[in-house]
Amino acid sequence: MKRAVVVFETSALWWILQTQRVEKLHDILSNYQIEHPDSKILVLSEKQNDADELVANLLSNKYPAIAIHGGKDQMDRKYAIKEFASMDSGINILIATSIAARGLDVRNLGLVINFDPPNHMEDYVHRVGRTGRAGAKGNAITFVSSSQPKEVFNLVKALKLSHSDIDPKLEEIANKFVTKVKAGKEKISSGFGGKGLDNLQEVRDNKLKLEKQRFGDQQPQRQQEETETKKSNDEPVPDIALPEFNIIEGNTPETSGPDKCKFYCRIVINDLPQKVRWNIVQRESLSKIIDESRTSITTRGQYYPPGLKPLSNDQERNGSLAKLYLLVEGLTLQSVTEAITLIKKKMLESLDILNQRENLQPTGRYVV
């Protein structure tokens, strides 16, 4: 696989800050807009709340700005990008989370500011790649603190791969981090291992266990005890099928743009009970999962009542005509895996609550 590197048309500057990032942002915006009044500026934050707070702060200080992130609906995001891309809108500053800015290709985008440092090298390459396109000169500025040694290490690595100059202070922080890694005091996360893969294996193990329970190869102890005390009840135990959680490497057909996500998963929620669907797709729930996993999660397709389904296989595969589903997209396998784990947890919690409210059999099983 070809390793991604930072484009040479982009120059990178760094500010090692402990506090007063907002004040520094004001200074940079003011000076840059004086020299480049028509240039577009992208500011990247880690969390959705931070993006909204930055927009409010900039607007109150007479800097026209707009935000996009996974917590906003698709129409709002499209409108924001259209306004930002327009040379006549008067809005030259876009605040965005990393995943929301993927594929963004706006003419005259001359400056990218990483208000929060990216947490892995691929994300840094993706962020900086928003500027310096088509041979044009671009600039990238990253705010980072000495209390973020792992982020500094990843960024120094990216700069070395792009043959860029490295600030001695950054290299010193990165070298200290490497020393701690060798001593076993710190760990380097590649973005493709660690907790995410552990969670994925847990999902697989649970799936196998539940399949065995369904087909009679294994019976939980609680079910055995309850069966002995309720032999007179011959009613079948209700089975609620969970959707598939298959992660696919590659670009999603639903997503367009030059920088599509590296991994995705379609989770069909159409056939889940209505209250469960609602608990999963409500904005507050999805926003929390998006923030924690650093993924993009959107609701796609349309709802089909019980007994109805798309008329053909083509419709089943078509994003707009398929059964209602969640599209989870991420730059790394770990991020998509974490999102799936959180969604599945929310799904099971909602099903448990539904079972209690409707007085279903306590031995009801979830069939994966």
UniProtKB/TrEMBL annotation:
Signal peptide: none annotated. Residues 223-234 have a biased composition (Basic and acidic residues). It comes from the Eukaryota. Pfam families: Helicase_C, KH_12. Residues 24-174 form the Helicase C-terminal domain. It catalyses: ATP + H2O = ADP + phosphate + H(+). SUPFAM superfamilies: P-loop containing nucleoside triphosphate hydrolases. GO terms for molecular function: RNA helicase activity. This is Helicase C-terminal domain-containing protein. It comes from Candida albicans (strain WO-1).
